[in-house]
Amino acid sequence: MKNKFIIKDIYVKNQKIFYNYEIEGNENFKKLFWLGELFSVEYNENIDNIPKSILAIPLLSNILPIIWVNNAIIYLDEIDKTFYDSIKNIKKVYKKMYSKKIQFKGKIKYHKKVNNYYNTPPEKTITFFSGGVDSYYTLIKRINEKPDLITIWGADIDYENEKGWSVVKDYIENIGNKYNLKNVEIHSALRRFIDNSELEKQYHDILHDNWWHAMQHGIGLIGNAAPYAYKYNVKTIYMPATYNKETTFLCASNPEIENNFKFASTSVLHEGYEANRQQKTEKICNYIKETDDNINLRVCYRSLNGDNCCKCEKCYRTIMAIISQKINPNDLGFHVDKKVLKQIEKSVTKTDMLKNIVAKTMWKDIIKAFKKEEKFWNKYNEIKWILSLKV
Question: Is residue 86 domain-shared with residue 201, that is, in the same domain?
Fold first, then answer.
């Protein structure tokens, strides 16, 4: 039986997009979707009068990789012409990345291909913003454009975690108020409507990575911004880069994929690919020194409360990167004392915390930063261990 994803209807009610769809095909395909929670996206403002061809983009962006690797067909009434044309180029990049591991087939069947070009030349920009190093680097770089800040509840903060989201919401709204920028809050089921455990079961051994990182999160996140971007005739959506041009491992968020993502008259720029994480941290620290700005970073994926746990590898690497710039991490949203520094040393030197290639790559850059002033750091017992660290 042919695998099919049939979009029956798309409608908006109370600032939320609802999608009615049916899934047909073999059991392995159908098991990848959790029908107990259909895909939906909610915004913190009215999104009425958006064409259905644009409203379809958040869902399409999150199912396309599944469709491709299962040689399935998407059926829908209408699709944005610019987005449809961009899909071909995005698919080519996925094929190039994973062609030795998996085949990318599948197709889209529609009744209407709609031209949604804006009547006036677009000028407005928006950027995804989580409060992390990549986000702040992009914000500082583009601050003169006054971009709107997009944050998605359902990405790193679980879809049902109201307490954690409340902390993040207050945090990003404070930043918006501080810089006089508009906050765009999107509540998306992008990680909830699919069965991640089943995707892991079927594809982890093939991809040697989790589905979110390897296949979904780049275009999946961007797609959620499409209705809002269309409403305001947005010219460019900035997606802060996680990695840089020297990266050798595969990731679904990269410039080749995201710079090909287009719809209506809007394009996407994978921003910050020219700098590694240490260089981004240095830019943020230099900005603080030059402006006396108070910046609180939010980098942690482990914490359920929306803050920094100061116990995970990502917190540790950010703390040490900040210290390398002779700035106190306690001033940037972390809670660090001698006990925490000792725990960082123990975790990094005596456990397998850095076995991951991503961690290894980023810690090499941190070590280089400390070694630039080796004589200075050799005076600090809590820090000097990193000067002899081999990764």
Answer: yes
| Domains contained in the chain, number | 2
In-domain check, residue 140: no
Distance from C-alpha of 26 to C-alpha of 10, rounded to nearest angstrom? 25
Which among 215, 214, 265 has a CA at the least distance from the CA of 237? 265
115, 230 Cβ separation under 8 angstroms: no
CB atoms within 10 A of CB 106: 20
Residue ranges in the chain assigned as alpha helix (H): 27-30, 52-55, 57-69, 81-98, 133-142, 162-179, 196-207, 211, 217-224, 226-231, 255-258, 277-291, 313-323, 338-350, 357-371, 374-377
- In this predicted model, what pLDDT tens digit does every residue of 32-66 receive, in sequence order? 999 888 999 999 999 999 999 999 999 999 999 99
Predicted TM-score of the model (pTM): 0.95
For residue 98, give its domain range. Answer: 4-120+185-271
Judgement on whether residues 266 and 313 belong to the same structural domain of the protein: no
- Helices and strands per DSSP (H, E), number in the chain: 16, 11
Check whether residue 21 and residue 100 sit in a common domain. Answer: yes
Q: Say which residues have a Cβ less than 8 Å from residue 220's Cβ, sequence separation at least 6.
A: 61, 62, 190, 252
In a domain, 351, yes or no: yes
Q: What is the pLDDT of residues 225-266, one digit of tens each?
A: 999 999 999 999 999 999 998 887 889 999 999 999 999 999
pLDDT digits (tens, 9 = 90+) for 289-298: 999 999 999 9
